[in-house]
Amino acid sequence: MAMDATTRTRTETDSLGSVEIPEDAYWGVHTARALENFPISMRPISVYKDLVAALAMVKQASARANREIGVLSPSKADLIDRAAQLVIDGQFHDQFVVGVVQGGAGTSTNMNANEVITNIALELAGREKGDYAYLSPIDDTNRSQSTNDVYPTAIKLGLSLDLLTLLEELDLLRGAFLAKAVEFHDVLKVGRTQLQDAVPMTLGQEFHGFATTLGEDYHRLRENAYLLYEINMGATAIGTGITTHRDYGEAVLRHLREISGLDLETATDLVESTSDTGAFMSFSSTLKRNAIKLSKICNDLRLLSSGPQAGFGEINLPARQAGSSIMPGKVNPVIPEVVNQVAFSVAGADLTVTMAVESGQLQLNAFEPIIAHSIFQSITWMRRAMRTLRVNCVDGISANRERLGAMVGASVGVVTALTPFIGYAASAALAKTALLTGRNVGDLVVEAGLMTRDAVDKQLSPARLSGLETATAAIPVMFVDETGFATVPEGRTGAQA
Q1: CA atoms of 119 and 87, how far apart (whole Å)
Q2: List of domains in the chain
Q3: What is the DSSP letter of 107?
Q4: Tens digits of residue pLDDT in 30-50
Q5: Is Lyase one of the keywords UniProt gives this record (predicted)?
C-alpha cells in the first residue's frame, strides 16, 4: 500500500509480517492486506451503510453476551459495546474500506470491523490506536466468533434493515399510482391486448392495476424477509461451535434481537446453516420479481406516452430534460428508461446470486461477498429507482382526455359491450362494417333495428364500457345475410336494455 513519505504511520504485525499503517487509520494490518489484494470493485463496504451498522450490531451483541457468560471482562466488553454503538449511530463508516468483492468468504470484512471497533474502543480508553496488548481485535472483539457466523448474520441483518427503507419507497410509489387512478377514474380509453385494440376501460383502471401489482410485491417482499431472520451465531468455523461457551449462542441471540429489533432465531442445524445460502437466493428472486414487474409498468408508461404526434399519445410524462442533441423540442421518457435499466441489472444480479449459491462447497460458501454485493446493490438501486419514478414521473403524469375520448368514439371495440344483447355474430358483422365504412358502431346498431338509441347509449356509457356497471339480457337469435350483415328475425326487435 503506497503512502506519501510524509505520512505518519504505526507498525502492525500479523503472521505474515509487519505493515506500516497510516497513523490516523482505525483499520489495521488485516485490512491493509485486503486493500492490496482486492482492488476489484473499487467500492468499499461502506457504500452499504446498513451492512456496516449490522456488523457493529453483531460485535456489540457478542460483547454483551461474552460479558454475561464470563468470558470477557466487563471493562473490555463495555469498551467494545460503546465503540460499536458509535458505528451503529453512523460514525466511522469511512473506515470500512475493504472492497465489497473479495476472496476469503468475507474474512477481510470481519477483520475490518474488528480492527475499526477495537481502535475506536482504544481511543475511548485513552490508549493509542494499535495497542492490541490492551484490547485485541481477535481475542477480544472477535471473541466467541468466526467470520463464518459473523458475516452471513451481518448480511441478513443489513438486508433486513435495507428492506425497511425499500418497502417505504415501494408503498409511496403504490400510493402515487393509486392517486392517479382516482384522478383518471372517469377517463375512458381503448384497452389493448397483444398491441391490438380491445374493449374500453378507464385510464383510472389501468393505473389502479399498476398500484395493485406493486401492492402484491410489497407483501411478497415482507413475507420473504423472514427468511433472513434465521442466523447462525455460535456456529463459528463450520457449525460445530468450537471455541464458544455453551451459553453463548442463546445469549448472543437475545442481545442481537434487542439491538436490532428483529425477530431473529438461531438455526436448528448450525452446520447446515453455515454452508447453506438458499435464503439469499430466495430473497434475491423476490426482489427480481418486483424489478421485472416494475419494468413492465415502465414499458407501459413509455408506450402510453409515445408520440406525442405519431404514437399512442394517451398520457403526458413530465418533461425532465432535452431528449436530443439534434432534434429540437424532442423529450424522451428518461425516468421510465432508467428504471428499466435498474431492472435489467437486478435480473443479472439474481443470476449471479444463483450461481454463487450453487458454487458453495462442503461446510462453507466462499462466495458470500458477491452474494452480498449483488443483493445490496439491487436493493439500493431499486429504492432509488422507485423514488425517482414517483417524484420525477408518476406524480406529474397528465391525461390527454380529448384524444382518448376521440379514440374510444372511433373504436369498433365498443361493439363488445353490445354482444350480450345482439349476439357475437351480429357484433362481428357490425364491427367489420364499421371498419370498412368508418361509421359509428352505435349508429349501425340502431339503423339495423337491433337496439333502440336509448339502449345503445346506456350500454355505451362510460360506466358500462369500463365494467363499473354490468347488465346483461338474453341474447336473441341473430342471422347474418349473404352480405355479411346481421339481421333480426321477423317478429323480433332486439334486446331492450
Answers
A1: 12
A2: 9-143 (1.10.275.10), 149-401 (1.20.200.10), 411-487 (no CATH)
A3: H
A4: 999 999 999 998 999 999 999
A5: yes
